[in-house]
Amino acid sequence: MKPHIKDKIQDLKVNTTKVQLNSGRLKEIPYKLRICKELKYLDLFGNSINIIPDWFYEFKNLENLSLKNNYFKDLPIIVFTIENLNCFNISDNQILKITDHYFTSLMRIEKVDLSYNQISYISDDKITYSKCTNLNLKGNKLEQFPIALKDCNNLEKLDLSENNISEIDDNIFDNLENLVELNLSFNNLTYLPTSIGKLKKLKRLILSGNKINHLPVEFENLATLEYLDFDNNPIGRVPVEISAQGASGIINYYLSLGDNEQLFEAKLLIVGQGNVGKTFLMNRLVSNDTPETCSTEGIDIKNWAIKTLSSPNFRVNIWDFGGQEIYHSTHQFFLTNRSLYLLVWEARTDQHQISFDYWLNVIRLLSNNSPVIIVLNKMDERIANIDEKSLKAKFKNIVSFHKVSAITGQNIDLLSENISNEINSLPLIGDKLPKVWLEIRKILESLQSNYISLSEYLGICNQCGLSNKRALFLSQYFHDLGVFLHFQEDSLLRQIIFLKPEWATNAVYKILDSKEVIQRNGEFDPELLDAVLFEFESDKRPYIVTLMKNFELCFEIDKNIFLIPELLKPEIIDFDWDYNNNLRFEYHYDFMPAGIMARFIVRTRNLIHDNTFWKNGVIIQRENTRALITTDQYSRKLFIWINGDNASFLLEIIRKELNDIHQSLNYHDVPERIPCICSDCINSKTPHLFNYSFVRAIGVSNVFKTIPCEISYTGINVHKLLGLYHIENTEHDDNPIYSLDKILTDIIEISSRILERKYQKKIEDLFNDDIVDLLRTKGHNVADQTRSGSSSSGISAGELDIMIRRNNGIPITIFECFRLNSCGQKNTVVSDHINKLLSKYDTHYLKRKFVIVFAESNRLDNLWANYTKYIKEMDYEDKYPYSGFALKSDLHNNIGAMRVGISRHENNGDTLEIVHIMLDMFNKK
């Protein structure tokens, strides 16, 4: 018995209601515990207990009992005599089966955790009375869905994941009408029973890692389903655009799949300054000629069929932006994960590095790091060199440089070959689509019109056998793919489908580029609109204005009078402002995209105070509190000054709007700054600025009470400083992309891709970069910490972590990546990284974290055996005690160069997991 446990036992009193004797090396339940007649909560996790004494029934008030991670081989029957027991945890023991009436007795306890035992059999006895709402049988050896559960109609959560279940009775779900969450992942299921359609309250269904290749039509009855995970099943992956539609979209996709074809299609976006030959280059690539052409106004789209390793008829949709700047608000309709960029530069001019910086930053943000090929055009006239090495070091999505002449055709073949290779390696290529979807698309593309009505579209779909409901799922998919545009959430735009996105966006650009609108500082009315859009049908002009409002490009300032904030005068207008005693906040951008302030003005138009706004600033008011928000494009900063009683609340509103804009631009981590509050800084225009995230982390860890000001050299109370900013984002964000199970299956797939790649040098930064990029292609909001500084060893910045966050900024999980060539008792590399993962980096008590080990040993199995032994025997200093390790060979489809295991650790009664993935990098070249 450990000394601190002995002390706890000595302190027990008759009226003690809560006892925790965790990891105390106990072999039996201490007799002294018997005096605690009022006991309600008892936690005996992590001991060596295998029997419960007869006097245990005296705990009449016991509500919560944990026997987790002990040595029980059978269910302790005496537990069932405790009538008030609501929560019973006996996970991580050695129970083999549950026979006779014991399972019936268990189901009279509201929450039961039997996970990670060795259970292969559960009695089939009918349960006539069940109180259980939450049952966990994860990580056992069941081969059949327990028949005894069929009448447990109070069950709300059921976890049967990580078993060997291959059979489910067809009527098993008939009476489980209250089930809200069902996890059957990582079993051997090949089918699902039709009775699953009777789960009318089901919200979460996890089926990843099975052998399912079709769904019963009854799946359509799951009207309440919010999250569905089907990853790693033979039925195939869901296109990312379909996943974005949620569970109903996924079900519609699978039920529609039937006869299908693979989609080999991607976008090639040609951007750059005006008059550099982008249109000439497009024509040379598509038809190997350069017809007479004038400068492209707006956007031009052409289809180009090329041969790739995946398909002899790969469809490339080329978007030529002419000299047109890509407006940030409309970017989502230009871009998908299947996008490649050509940044064209005119070789005869010595354009400054800033030009490259601008375009490459725009591409990096808008495309979430899509690959870029830089093309130096007009090499027949003059050759100008650029610093390729420096550009590639800064912008890691640059894949190559080419010098060509669109006029003569010189080097075009090499460029075309490079495009073919890069297009083919884009993520998500080869998704399966129902043939009927492709047939409908061909019909729509054959129409000469720029748009059709919703009723016309539904008529076409009905003729092809699609119901109206499925037709709307399909139009949403086309919309997300950028093939056609259909804004279903807007009552007006819902009635029209833009068959040619360039027609709609060019109309928008026509207004934005109009001299008349610019001269009126962005203001326009129906009369001016008619003059500007004279080439566009008059009855469609209201749709264009509504489209601009959806793009956050304009808003209505008076009846039928609209304003485009981006076209306002940049000069500051006159206003009075007292800068003393303001709540202040700043954003510091390394690259500041155009249009942030314009979009903010549109979003906060109902809060604008006394029409006080200009291109780079606005004053908003809520009740008796005002905020001044300004931007400076030259310093790349956004400033916030707030006066009033509810300053922190108004700041929360402002941050929410700005963070939403940043998220839409894939700009997830704009540095935030708050001013020092010492006497030298409190009313200074140039105070010392603290990193807000850093100060908040210090406040959470509570290690340091003060933080030094670099101007006055005085210590500032951290909690007093944070007390001014009551702005924690508590918004609930339940996006399915944030599922830890989905992250797990995604990282396994990503790890297998890492193993397929070749590297010239064994530099873990390269591996980390690939992991970050591939996670982002899966839709995850990844904050790459690996460039933030050097590691504790001083070897490489690449030894730091990677974090996945929700859209509201809250962390979901952390990754540690490091190299390893041996793992003995004296090796501290592993323990250093594990301890960082458990405590140093985790201020949010994350439930699951990841370790990726780049193994550099010629004997992978030996290294893995030593590593798992090290994890089991490592000293966790009682803070996160080890409770179990599960080998997970089923997760990686027997890939010989990968090993996966999950260790479990305790934290104040909760369990957290670390997923350990070891990749064999020894033979990488």
From TrEMBL:
<keyword id="KW-0808">Transferase</keyword>
<dbReference type="InterPro" id="IPR020859">
    <property type="entry name" value="ROC"/>
</dbReference>
<dbReference type="InterPro" id="IPR005225">
    <property type="entry name" value="Small_GTP-bd"/>
</dbReference>
<dbReference type="Pfam" id="PF25497">
    <property type="entry name" value="COR-B"/>
</dbReference>
<keyword id="KW-0418">Kinase</keyword>
<dbReference type="InterPro" id="IPR001611">
    <property type="entry name" value="Leu-rich_rpt"/>
</dbReference>
<dbReference type="Pfam" id="PF16095">
    <property type="entry name" value="COR-A"/>
</dbReference>
<dbReference type="GO" id="GO:0004674">
    <property type="term" value="F:protein serine/threonine kinase activity"/>
</dbReference>
<dbReference type="Pfam" id="PF13855">
    <property type="entry name" value="LRR_8"/>
</dbReference>
<keyword id="KW-0723">Serine/threonine-protein kinase</keyword>
<dbReference type="InterPro" id="IPR032675">
    <property type="entry name" value="LRR_dom_sf"/>
</dbReference>
<dbReference type="GO" id="GO:0005525">
    <property type="term" value="F:GTP binding"/>
</dbReference>
<dbReference type="GO" id="GO:0005737">
    <property type="term" value="C:cytoplasm"/>
</dbReference>
<dbReference type="InterPro" id="IPR050216">
    <property type="entry name" value="LRR_domain-containing"/>
</dbReference>
<dbReference type="InterPro" id="IPR027417">
    <property type="entry name" value="P-loop_NTPase"/>
</dbReference>
<dbReference type="InterPro" id="IPR003591">
    <property type="entry name" value="Leu-rich_rpt_typical-subtyp"/>
</dbReference>
<dbReference type="GO" id="GO:0005524">
    <property type="term" value="F:ATP binding"/>
</dbReference>
<keyword id="KW-0547">Nucleotide-binding</keyword>
<keyword id="KW-0433">Leucine-rich repeat</keyword>
<keyword id="KW-0677">Repeat</keyword>
<keyword id="KW-0342">GTP-binding</keyword>
<dbReference type="Pfam" id="PF00560">
    <property type="entry name" value="LRR_1"/>
</dbReference>
<dbReference type="Pfam" id="PF08477">
    <property type="entry name" value="Roc"/>
</dbReference>
<protein>
    <recommendedName>
        <fullName>non-specific serine/threonine protein kinase</fullName>
        <ecNumber>2.7.11.1</ecNumber>
    </recommendedName>
</protein>
<dbReference type="InterPro" id="IPR032171">
    <property type="entry name" value="COR-A"/>
</dbReference>
<dbReference type="InterPro" id="IPR036388">
    <property type="entry name" value="WH-like_DNA-bd_sf"/>
</dbReference>
<feature type="domain" description="Roc">
    <location>
        <begin position="259"/>
        <end position="426"/>
    </location>
</feature>
<dbReference type="InterPro" id="IPR057263">
    <property type="entry name" value="COR-B"/>
</dbReference>
<keyword id="KW-0067">ATP-binding</keyword>
